[in-house]
Amino acid sequence: MLMAGLSVVAVARSHKSISKEDDSVKVEQVEEVVDVQVDVDVYPNPATENFTISVEDNSFDFALYSKNGRQIISRSDCHETFKMDTSSLSSGVYILNVIVDEDIYMKRIVVL
Description:
Layout: E1 10-15, E2 18-21, E3 24-27, E4 30-35, E5 40-43, E6 50-66, E7 71-85, E8 92-100, E9 103-111
Antiparallel strand pairs: 1-4, 2-3, 5-6, 6-7, 6-8, 8-9
């Protein structure tokens, strides 16, 4: 039974039957359990000259947006780390979307 406020941190990739009644979940058979937590680090934050995006053991895509929602930069197929030069950015708050597989991780970045 799942208690209110708790969440499942793993996903069953293959199953025969999952049913939900009230607040309980019944799983008949699970063939593979996959941890869906990915460690996405962005440092230093606040940033002065640059910041690094680090996604351990994964390739990723990312997009950086201004606080007004304008896309500043995007990159695809980065492998584990990417160092972003901030010298061309104005001081302010930016939103970084990091895409790993099909999951999107949103981070707030401050550039000084």
